[in-house]
């Protein structure tokens, strides 16, 4: 069995090479026929040459006529009519060389189209070929068994060996080094810590590791991508509508001009010459090649578009409707802030909550556990865990009873203020308590994607004039997100039916794109001219009905797709218009009797080569984004990672400001001030100085100039000024309590620094850290 498997490995590449060779065979045969005929003609055997050229003409005429008849049977009238008439006319008047050259031209166009199709579908075929078929599963009694992928169930413990493709979505049980380039487009190896989620389809680039399945094979990320890849087709259909629109005017014009040339001169050969130079290769082949090239490019950017018609519509879009949760926002909550009771320990509160929540399947529990692990906190296995739906989880951690969830009864003053702060900020509060009292609250938020605002700007620059956010969330939260990303209108508390109705209404005004990620978005995606699903997190109903799917969890790839679609459509239109304009000029000359059929055939061949080469320009260009050099990417990753530490300082800064505001005479006030000032000078200011010295100069190239980072440099100046101002007050206070006249100015510095630093971090994450692919 093993020998047979090894012997079969090279068969597929051999078959593929034979298939590719056969696709070029008609072009090679016709080229040989034209050249052989030319040799016979030069040798004086002109009858044999004519027979050979006539045979080449008939070889091309038969399939072209059959294609035309099938179109007419379906009551479709296209540009194939001209090609058939030109070939038949060349045979009737005895212009066999002209007919052979037309046949060669059509074969050249078809070969180039097949090449562009292969290039467009190469990435999709690669997805299918590397799809895992089996998985290694741990046996309860010990040992490992290899099972078919469809037998893997949620909760199974798997083993992913070196070089293996991760078979299903799951949680890694120990540190892993992964190559996620196929799924995410990220070229660098990625380190995943124990407990982190990984998507199926990524490759193990390090030692083997354990994986606990969180989804079945059919529901996993890679299965969804493969299903979409099977449906996505790079076919000739993309520009059928455009070609037929042009054909509606071009074909009658050609026939009338050919008839006039024949009627006015009495020479049928003039009509044939007109038909020869009118052979519409720019419509039949050049325009589909441009669109197919666009399909190839968006596939490489992590966007699967089902067909060229959808890409053409995406290039004409003027209105965008976009869902909020999971599209403009990350779609999974994160712990934004931990508020603790007076004298409490923020890290200990988070550790207790995450320890209890380790066994809970709730999405909020996953956020707490992830946050604790990112902070390097040691989690303890809980005991006596019980979960009450809607109320929370209770368990013992190190013998201590801990409750995580909702809080009933009257709240202490600090807890009431925390609840009010969460409500104002649009955050969810998860309370952590022991047997006696609440210990703290963890405020969770669904953060706006760092690349969302940049993506909205790029979409406007690409030509979208109306951007609307539709969401089922509360108006207050929806308005905050809308202001952050810069959309034109907001529709909050929106049901799936209302989303669909709004899409239908907008589609009546202009070509409309709908972007969403959830099952509730599926009806709206199906209703839109172009539905785009955020499919990177797994296969959902939204991905099944969408016209395009983002297989990478980055919203900016939507802007990439729109820019590429517009560019490909512009190149396609340009190829059609320029090619037909040149053909019309040649037709007029042919109708006047100045261009014989043979010369017209060679001239048309030259026109076709020009427009096809122009169409292949769609394989590059069009993107507005600048490439980020690898060294700059490394710097961006490093400083983005340091933001977590800066946010920790921000949390302490806010707590200290609250303490100064409420208890300026407290003996804990000055020590807290000195501690937070020490963290500001020891951690935040060095981070800002290093950015100024290393990161900002490196960004001058990708951003276009040194001036692009000057507003952020001004932010660094303000941050240092406020830190120095806090230090000045500490120096004045000495060992004694704060004076009354100091409190007001100190509070202005503390709260001002909190606001400036938060804004500064958000701007860096949106404008700089979202740059790399």
UniProtKB/TrEMBL annotation:
SUPFAM superfamilies: Calcium ATPase, transduction domain A (SSF81653), Calcium ATPase, transmembrane domain M (SSF81665), HAD-like (SSF56784). Residues 641-770 form the Hemerythrin-like domain. Residues 131-230 form the P-type ATPase A domain. CDD domains: Hr-like. NCBIfam families: ATPase-IB2_Cd (TIGR01512), ATPase-IB_hvy (TIGR01525), ATPase_P-type (TIGR01494). This is ATPase P. It holds the Pfam family Hydrolase. The keyword ATP-binding applies. Keywords: ATP-binding, Cell membrane, Membrane, Metal-binding, Nucleotide-binding, Translocase, Transmembrane, Transmembrane helix. PANTHER family: CADMIUM/ZINC-TRANSPORTING ATPASE HMA2-RELATED (PTHR48085), CADMIUM_ZINC-TRANSPORTING ATPASE HMA4-RELATED (PTHR48085:SF5). It is found in: Cell membrane. The chain crosses the membrane at residues 24-44, 51-69, 81-109, 246-265, 271-292. The keyword Methyltransferase does not apply. Belongs to the cation transport ATPase (P-type) (TC 3.A.3) family. Type IB subfamily. GO terms for cellular component: plasma membrane. It is a multi-pass membrane protein. GO terms for molecular function: ATP binding; ATP hydrolysis activity; ATPase-coupled monoatomic cation transmembrane transporter activity; cadmium ion transmembrane transporter activity; metal ion binding. It comes from the Bacteria. InterPro entries: ATPase_P-typ_cyto_dom_N (IPR023299), ATPase_P-typ_P_site (IPR018303), ATPase_P-typ_TM_dom_sf (IPR023298), ATPase_P-typ_transduc_dom_A_sf (IPR008250), ATPase_P-type_domA (IPR059000), Cation_Transport_ATPase_IB (IPR051014), HAD-like_sf (IPR036412), HAD_sf (IPR023214).
């Amino acid at each position: 069995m093993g020998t047979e498997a090894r012997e079969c490995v090279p068969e597929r590449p051999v078959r593929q090479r034979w298939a590719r060779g056969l696709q070029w065979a008609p072009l090679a045969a016709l080229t040989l026929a034209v050249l052989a005929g030319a040799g016979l003609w030069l040798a004086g055997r002109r009858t044999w040459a004519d027979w050979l050229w006539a045979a080449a003409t008939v070889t091309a005429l038969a399939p072209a006529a059959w294609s035309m008849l099938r179109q007419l049977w379906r009551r479709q009238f296209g540009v194939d009519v001209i090609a058939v008439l030109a070939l038949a006319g060349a045979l009737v008047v005895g212009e066999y060389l002209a007919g052979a050259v037309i046949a060669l031209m059509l074969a050249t166009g078809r070969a180039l189209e097949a090449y562009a199709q292969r290039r467009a579908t190469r990435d999709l075929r690669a997805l299918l070929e590397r799809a895992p078929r089996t998985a290694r599963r741990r046996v309860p009694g010990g040992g490992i068994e290899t099972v078919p992928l469809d037998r893997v169930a949620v909760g199974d413990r798997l083993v992913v060996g070196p070089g293996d493709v991760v078979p299903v979505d799951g949680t890694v049980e120990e540190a892993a080094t992964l190559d996620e380039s196929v799924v995410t487009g990220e070229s660098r190896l990625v380190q995943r810590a124990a407990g982190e989620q990984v998507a199926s389809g990524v490759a193990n680039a390090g030692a083997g590791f354990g994986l606990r399945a969180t989804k079945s094979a059919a529901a996993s990320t890679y299965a969804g991508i493969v299903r979409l890849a099977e449906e996505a087709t790079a076919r000739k259909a993309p520009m059928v509508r455009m070609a037929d629109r042009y054909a509606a005017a071009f074909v009658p014009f050609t026939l009338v001009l050919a008839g006039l040339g024949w009627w006015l001169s009495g020479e049928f050969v003039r009509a044939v010459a007109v038909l020869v130079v009118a052979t519409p290769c720019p419509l039949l082949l050049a325009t589909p090649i441009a669109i197919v090239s666009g399909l190839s490019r968006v596939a490489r950017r992590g966007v699967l578009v089902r067909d060229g018609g959808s890409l053409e519509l995406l290039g004409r879009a003027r209105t965008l409707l976009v869902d909020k949760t999971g599209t403009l926002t990350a779609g999974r909550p994160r712990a934004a802030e931990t508020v603790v009771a007076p004298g409490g320990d923020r890290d200990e509160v988070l550790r207790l909550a995450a320890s209890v929540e380790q066994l809970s399947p709730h999405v909020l529990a996953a956020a707490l556990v992830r946050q604790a692990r990112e902070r390097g906190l040691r989690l303890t296995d809980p005991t006596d865990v019980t979960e009450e739906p809607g109320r929370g989880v209770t368990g013992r951690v190190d013998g201590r009873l801990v409750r995580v969830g909702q809080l009933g009864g009257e709240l202490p003053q600090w807890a009431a203020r925390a609840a009010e702060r969460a409500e104002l900020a649009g955050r969810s509060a998860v309370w952590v308590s022991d047997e006696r009292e609440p210990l703290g609250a963890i405020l969770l938020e669904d953060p706006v994607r760092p690349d969302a605002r940049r993506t909205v700007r790029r979409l406007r620059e690409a030509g979208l004039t109306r951007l609307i956010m539709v969401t089922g969330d509360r108006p207050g939260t929806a308005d905050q997100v809308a202001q952050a990303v810069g959309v034109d209108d907001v529709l909050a508390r929106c049901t799936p039916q209302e989303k669909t109705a709004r899409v239908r209404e907008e589609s009546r005004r202009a070509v409309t794109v709908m972007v969403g990620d959830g099952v509730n978005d599926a009806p709206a995606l199906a209703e839109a001219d172009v539905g785009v699903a955020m499919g990177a997190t797994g296969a959902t109903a939204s991905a099944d009905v969408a016209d395009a799917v983002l297989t990478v969890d980055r919203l900016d790839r939507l802007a990439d797709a729109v820019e590429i679609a517009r560019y490909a459509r512009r190149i396609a239109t340009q190829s059609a218009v320029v090619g037909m304009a040149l053909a019309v000029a040649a037709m007029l000359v042919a109708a006047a009797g100045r261009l014989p059929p043979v010369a017209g055939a060679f001239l048309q061949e030259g026109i076709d080569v020009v427009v096809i080469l122009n169409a292949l320009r769609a394989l590059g260009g069009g993107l507005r984004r600048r490439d980020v050099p690898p060294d700059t990417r490394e710097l961006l990753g490093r400083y983005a990672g340091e933001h977590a530490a800066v946010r920790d300082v921000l949390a302490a800064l806010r707590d200290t400001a609250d303490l100064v505001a409420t208890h300026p005479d407290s003996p804990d006030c000055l020590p807290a001030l000195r501690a937070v000032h020490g963290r500001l000078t020891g951690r935040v200011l060095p981070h800002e100085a290093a950015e100024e010295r290393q990161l900002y100069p490196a960004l001058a190239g990708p951003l276009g100039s040194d001036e692009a980072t000057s507003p952020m440099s001004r932010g660094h100046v303000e941050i240092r000024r406020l830190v120095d101002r806090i230090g000045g007050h500490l120096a004045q206070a000495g060992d004694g309590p704060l004076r009354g006249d100091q409190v007001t100015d100190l509070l202005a510095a503390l709260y001002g620094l909190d606001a400036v630093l938060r804004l500064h971090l958000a701007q860096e994450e949106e404008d700089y850290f979202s740059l790399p692919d």
